[in-house]
Amino acid sequence: MKTRDEIAQALAACGYIADAELATAISLMQMLKRPLLLEGEAGVGKTEVAKALACVHGTELIRLQCYEGLDQSAALYEWNYQRQLLAIQAHHGADADAVEDQIFSEKYLLERPLLASIRRETPPVLLIDEIDRADDEFEAFLLELLSDFQVSIPELGTITASAIPHVVLTSNGTRELSDALRRRCLYHYVDYPDVEREARIIMARIDGASASLSLQIARMLEGVRKEELRKVPGVAETLDWAAALVGLDVRDLHDAPETVYETMMCLLKTREDRARVTREVTERILGKVA
Amino acid sequence: MSCCGDHPTFEEIDQVSRLVAQKLSAFLKTLRDNGFAVGLAEGRDAATLMASGYVGKPGLLRSALKHLFSARKSDWDKFDGLFDAFWLGKRVRSRSMTSGAAKTASSPSLKNLQDGGTISGQSATDQVPSTEDGPEGRGGEGRMEGASRAENLAEVDFRKLADPEQAAQAHDAAERLAKAMRTRLTRRDLARRHGYRLDLRRTIHRNISHGGVPISLVKRQRKDKPLRLVVLLDASGSMSMYTGVFLRFIHGVLDEFREAEAFLFHTRLAHVSGAMKERDAARALDRLSILAQGAGGGTRIGESLATFNRHHAARVIHSRTCVMIVSDGYETGDANLLGREMGRLAKRCRRIVWLNPMAAWQGYVPVAAGIKAALPHVDLYAPANTLKSLVALEPYLARL
Q1: Distance to chain A for B93, nearest Cα, Å
Q2: FRET label pair with A43: which of A145, B163, B177, B288, CA 20 to 30 Å apart?
Q3: Handedness of CA A37, A40, A42, A43 (dihedral sign)
């Protein structure tokens, strides 16, 4: 088991700049074998945590994207009906029991993310993305899976996890999750990064972003997030913007105020926000950036 | 924290660990009192943590326990304060806490922590003098009707309103309403039972035993989500006459509806579902009076709605949500802002009901600037000042 600092370093090596608290959360995940629930605004890098975690452990990332109406057949397993039918046709006239045994064997089973995650030899990282979009029933089912790590398939029997996966759940808070699920998980609130961390993220992710430019961009973002916006730009937007500025060969934001204003489209994604952050506002925020 | 000599005897170790365990369970109780969902498994894991070297570094232990015990953003935000108060004795005399009593009522600083977000602005509350409530539209009848009780309600102590009998009545009203709206849903569900679209995958699966000849068909139907009711109650001075009635009603609503949320607003907005979901009505009102600091002053409906739209709407509103605003519409803030925010809210939710106690009076015309700005976005505008009138609304609400 790794210590907190080692984890933070390993994450940084994978391109994810974590704060101390997240590193603690990940070391607890290993120690207590509990899933980690990440909440936070859209675009603060919740999904990236799981990807970085897979990179740290050097394992596979299995992702289950939740949506309304997600059910067991899409999340857990499903029989390959077409192949089963073909097999029945092919064995026409054969012993019925033998055929049945054959078509309900693992060969005809389609594994979906949840089943896949418990059948791997090395524990993978299971990312259950945007759990708040799934229905209540699915949440209840998930709770059962997360406590026992076993799945019973009526035709086949019970499949127990060969290795307990590292489970990361993310939520955007579009629906209140059940207390039971919340209690089961470790909780971490992913906030917008502070200036220093954001600058380090830009440097780690964008080739050609100098330290001074990254710091300027991060300060600029701090100012923009303080405006009354409908959609506050997240880290993903910051990276887009930084990539745009680097691509346009901007070395210092003060040298190119016009480009800064024009490329703000990377940050502001609604018409109202665009109207609110006028040329004057941009210049005012830029003025505060040292 | 609990350190001992160089060579502790086993008895000493036993005692120390027992002390730590006791203190830990007292901490768990404090957390539960502050609305954390903490179970036995969490306590066990916390003990594991403490046994594993985390205990020596308070900062690290705090961070670790924070991840373990928090379950939502509000928990996350107030955990540090609670932890410091309990373990490091900051702002709270640690003696009174170690006794294990952890009565939130008896320790003022912990009480303030109950809802850090709302209470922190307590000293800065904008208390509009009650003489300025509803400057233009307040009719003569209003003063007469409210005169005798207005005084003691100005400080709004919700506990005084917790008459058990009335509470039970309010519960009944809410229950009837919930049933009316729910049965409606069930009937709709039945009519669609046969489904409208063929589910090919399942049909093939079902008919494998017939050798793949589709004899029995499986169909799909749209799933009905239960209706969610979100109540926004105006708790300003001009509404003080009615706050009690509606609070009891809200308590019933939260209890009876499958999905419901409640908010109080005056000059600020407070999310009160947690406090109100307390089974016991009297206790709910008790917890509420802590949350409702600053109630009884002026009303900033527009700003409160803006807060709601910004911070809560995405979470509590889905496509089958009915928002019920209970207010007299006397806006002391900007009426244009109110109109704009109502427009935003209307885009998000299915229906908006505006219940106005004042509208029950004879000769009342909605002329106040606030209500005028809001009305274009409202689907049902109705008078409601007593439980009876709420029950009378049943058929209208059921149709929403």
Answers
A1: 28
A2: A145
A3: negative
Provide the sign of the torsion angle of the four alpha carbons A203, A208, A211, A216, taken in this order.
negative
The token duo for A226 is 């303080």
- Which pLDDT value is given to residue B40? 85
Strand partners, B270: B264
Ranges assigned E (strand) in B174-243: 197-198, 219-220, 228-234
Average pLDDT across chain B, whole number: 70
Any chain A CB within 8 A of the CB of B201?
Answer: yes
- pLDDT score, position A93: 79
Q: Residue A34: which of A42, A25, A47, A23 has the closest Cα? A: A25
Residue carrying the six token digits 């890098």: A45
What is the structure's pLDDT at B269? 83
Interface mutation target, options A28, A67, A79, chain B, most CBs of B under 10 Å:
A28
User: Three-state SS for A207?
Assistant: coil
DSSP annotation of B92 reads S
Percent residues over pLDDT 90 in chain A: 37
Task: Specify the DSSP class assigned to residue B295.
Answer: T
| Calpha distance A230→B347 (Å, rounded) | 14
Q: What is the mean pLDDT of residues A76-103?
A: 84
Shortest distance between the Cα of A81 and any Cα of chain B, in A, equals: 6
Collect the ranges in chain B with pLDDT lower than 50: 1-5, 92-160, 183-193
pLDDT of residue A129: 93
How far is A79 from A60, CA to CA, in rounded Å?
A: 24
Which residue in A37, A38, A70, A81 has the most chain B C-beta atoms within 10 A of its own C-beta, making it the best mutation to test that interface? A81
Question: Which residues from chain B sit within 8 angstroms of residue A187, using beta carbons?
Answer: 67, 70-72, 75-76
Residue A87 has pLDDT above 80, yes or no: yes
**The residue type at A210:** S
B72-81 residue pLDDT tens:
887 888 888 8
Nearest CB neighbour to B212, from listed A69, A88, A186? A88
Chain B contact set for A88 (CB, 8 A): 208, 211-212
3 state SS of B314 = helix
- Name every chain B residue with its beta carbon within 8 A of the beta carbon of A188: 67
Residue A50: the pLDDT is 93
CB contact under 8 A, A24 and B60: yes
Query: Does residue A112 have a pLDDT over 50?
Result: yes
> Which segment of A63-67, A266-270, B161-165, B231-235 scores lowest on mean pLDDT?
B161-165
CA distance B194 to chain A (A): 18
